[in-house]
């Protein structure tokens, strides 16, 4: 029985399983980040709508998309619904931020347990230097001046 315990302790951990688990955890972290970003953009859009319709006459007609159907309502009916939706989105973002912090902690614990360090490739530095030498106006696209021809 003692040999089984020693065998388990001396048995090397499968590096591929650890790497796959770590990659999966990082992927989940990235998904949470992207979902938070997406929801923050929606909150921003809700804020724009609220700011645009709030000063208007409450009996004025407006249109709202509900389940793919455009519905005519008044501002008085739509404004509270948009505000509730915005508050709901903010609550979801808060919960996702909590999940994000928990996932970050889990990843750091996993990194500490398996002594995972992320290596930065030396090739990136060489590529960055060569890119800087080529020109500093990268990523800018300017269309032709004047009207359409």
Automatic annotation (TrEMBL):
BP terms from Gene Ontology: protein folding; response to cold
Biased composition annotated in UniProt, kind: Basic and acidic residues: 121-135
Chain spans, region Disordered: 121-149
Pfam families: Prefoldin_2 (PF01920)
A molecular function (GO) term: unfolded protein binding
Gene3D superfamilies to which the protein is assigned, alphabetical: 1.10.287.370
Coiled-coil segments on the chain, per record: 79-113
The protein's name: Prefoldin subunit 2
Family: Belongs to the prefoldin subunit beta family.
Organism: Ficus carica (Common fig)
GO annotation, cellular component aspect: prefoldin complex
Keyword line: Chaperone, Coiled coil
